[in-house]
Design a protein that fits this description.
By secondary structure, the protein is of the alpha+beta class. It contains four helices and nine strands, in the order αββααβββββββα. β7 and β8 form a beta hairpin.
């Protein structure tokens, strides 16, 4: 929700009669990230606040490095991962003046570390544009923390369950009916 005309003036550019939302303003509106600065500064400004890495996760921000054609960098929100080299993103102000949803991005880096990507061109989801360098992904969790799925995977691998929650049996024994085994759960 936009609260003031000052916000509109600072984060939207005027092209004719239309208002164009910039990528940073779009990410602020569609996520809970609280990073300041131009898109090119997000990677550095996220340090110490948010976890960063080289693997996509839904809800993470893909941080593009600045280039000659894109001197302020770019940020986009990861919506889902298709496979180890393909994600779908939502973004603003990329090759058009609007917001684009479910845009295909393909990792073309030699090490499969998402440091170089190609973004689908508007109007044709299969045709990819130029190669763009990226910093990686900024995750919406505290710096130094692992993704939830990795935390649970590590607990299971170690054979400990101290960090996991378990289900408990209902107090009403008739919940199971006559089919339930007759065992003491004490």
């Amino acid at each position: 929700m936009i609260r003031s005309s000052h916000f509109l003036h600072r984060h939207y550019r005027h092209y004719g009669h239309a208002h164009v939302i910039q990528c940073v303003a779009y990410v602020h509106q569609s996520t809970d990230f609280h990073i300041r600065g131009n898109a090119r500064d997000w990677w550095r400004n996220a340090e110490g606040m948010y976890a960063r890495g080289q693997q996509p996760e839904p809800g993470a921000v893909l941080s593009f490095r600045p280039t000659r054609r894109m001197p302020l960098g770019h940020v986009a929100v990861v919506r889902r991962q298709i496979d180890s080299r393909t994600i779908m993103i939502d973004q603003a102000h990329w090759a058009s003046n609007g917001i684009s949803h479910n845009t295909k991005v393909v990792d073309v880096s030699p090490e499969n570390d998402w440091t170089a990507v190609r973004v689908a061109l508007p109007g044709n989801g299969e045709r990819l544009g130029s190669i763009y360098p990226t910093h990686g992904f900024i995750y919406n969790r505290q710096d130094g923390s692992a993704p939830v799925s990795i935390q649970y995977r590590n607990v299971i691998a170690k054979g400990t369950a101290s960090d996991m929650e378990t289900a408990s049996i209902p107090a009403d024994a008739s919940f199971f009916g006559d089919e339930a085994p007759s065992r003491s759960l004490q």
